[in-house]
Amino acid sequence: MSDFRLTRAQERQLVQTMRCTHDVRQYRRSLAVLECGRGKPVNEVAAVLHVTRQSIHNWVTRYRRAGQCTALVDHVHRGRPRRADRTVEAFLQELLQITLAQCGYHATHWTVPLLQDQLRQHLNQTFCDATVRRVLHRLSYVWKRPRYVLAADAEREKKVSYPARAWQLTAAQRRAGGG
Fold first, then answer.
1. Residues 37 and 93 placed together within one structural domain of the fold
2. Which InterPro entries match (predicted)?
3. CB 108, CB 99: distance < 8 Å
4. What confidence category does residue 121 fall into, taking pLDDT thresholds of 50, 70 and 90?
5. Continuous H helices in the chain
6. 93-122 average pLDDT score
7. pLDDT band, very low/low/confident/very high, at 165 (cuts 50, 70, 90)
8. Angle between helices 112-123 and 86-95 (to 10 degrees)
9. Helix and strand element counts for the chain (H, E)
């Protein structure tokens, strides 16, 4: 790594990238390449940036091959593929359209455990609570709890006191704006 040197244009490019970027990883990589290009040992640069020496070597190699700061940008991280694919989405969408009684449940509203049970029965797959909720969110399904409402009170008429009428007020109450 001791033979790695930067030209003035490359140094300016790295410094400009460090000034303009909002990505911490790109900033760290640019700084590592810049410091190695100025002659600092890889051990020191790795210790200051709290990374391994191999990471520094990889970043310098990427920069050398491309000759541009764009080589130090993160690659797209795709992550793990979804287990709950379009089949699960379509099944849940159809399931939410039918009543629970048709499925043999004595509940009033669909719950995540009931949906998980149906997925296990029909698709032979088990999904965690979070996965089922994510699928429901992708389907724009709004999850609300049922609100209990008390029955109307037949005795309400007797319990409510009505305000006094204007002709029932005394003169003093009318002057004071009572009522």
1. no
2. Homeodomain-like_sf (IPR009057)
3. no
4. very high
5. 8-20, 24-37, 42-49, 53-66, 86-95, 112-123, 129-138, 156-159, 171-176
6. 90
7. low
8. 120
9. 9, 0
Instruction: Tell me the residue range of the domain where 93 lies.
Output: 86-138
> In the block, which residue shows the tokens 């509940």?
107
Q: Of 28, 9, 10, whose CA–CA distance to 18 is shortest?
A: 28
Count Cβ neighbours within 10 Å for each residue of 23-35 and write b for 16 or more, e otherwise: eeebbbbbbbbbb
Residue 132's nearest CA partner among 108, 106, 114, 105 is 114
State whether 38 and 60 are in the same domain.
Answer: yes
Instruction: Give, as one character, the DSSP assignment of residue 74.
Output: P
Average pLDDT for 59-88? 88
pLDDT per residue over 139-152, tens digit each?
998 877 777 888 88
As a whole number of angstroms, the distance between CA 42 and CA 52 comes to 9
- The per-residue pLDDT for range 39-65, each reduced to its tens digit, is 999 999 999 999 999 999 999 999 999
Residue 40 lies inside a defined structural domain of this protein: yes
When divided into structural domains, the chain yields a total of 2
Residue 80 in domain:
no
Alpha helix (H) residue ranges in 7-74: 8-20, 24-37, 42-49, 53-66
| Average pLDDT score, the chain | 86
By residue count, the chain amounts to 179
Mark whether 92 and 116 lie in a shared domain.
yes
